[in-house]
Amino acid sequence: VDGGIYKNVSVNVTMTAKVFYVQGEVNAPGQFPLSSGTTLMQAIAGARGYTPFAWETKVTVTRHGKVYRFNMKDLEKDPSLDVKIKAGDVIKVPQKPW
Question: How far apart are CA 21 and CA 28, in angstroms?
C-alpha cells in the first residue's frame, strides 16, 4: 500500500466451523455444531438417542487419530465420568453383535 502498487486491499477471513459427528446406531446420525461444554451424553441425545440395535457399552470417540472407548451405561450411572466433546470428534455407536 505504501509503495502505491495497491490502491484497495481486501482481506477475507475464513473460519472453520466447530462441528462433531455422530454415526452408527443413533436415530439421527450426522454432523452437529459444537457448543461450549457439549458432553458425550449430550451429543448422543442430540442425535435423538440410540436405536434398538445400539451397543451402548462399546461407544467410541475418535479424536486426532486416537480411539477412546466408553461404556455409556457407566456414564449414565455416574455423570461425572462424562467427557467433553471437541471439534472434529467422531462418535460411533456400533451395532450389537447379536
Answer: 11
Strands (E), 12-98: 19-24, 30-33, 59-63, 66-70, 90-93
Query: Among 92, 30, 97, which Cα is nearest to 63's?
Result: 92
Q: pLDDT (tens digit, 9 = 90+) per residue, 60-88? A: 999 999 999 999 999 999 999 999 999 99
Question: Pick from 36, 96, 88: which is nearest to 72 by CA?
Answer: 96
pTM of the model: 0.82
Please list the alpha-helical segments (H only) found in the chain.
Answer: 40-46, 72-77
Q: Are 92 and 40 in contact (CB under 8 A)?
A: no
Q: Are 54 and 76 in contact (CB under 8 A)?
A: no
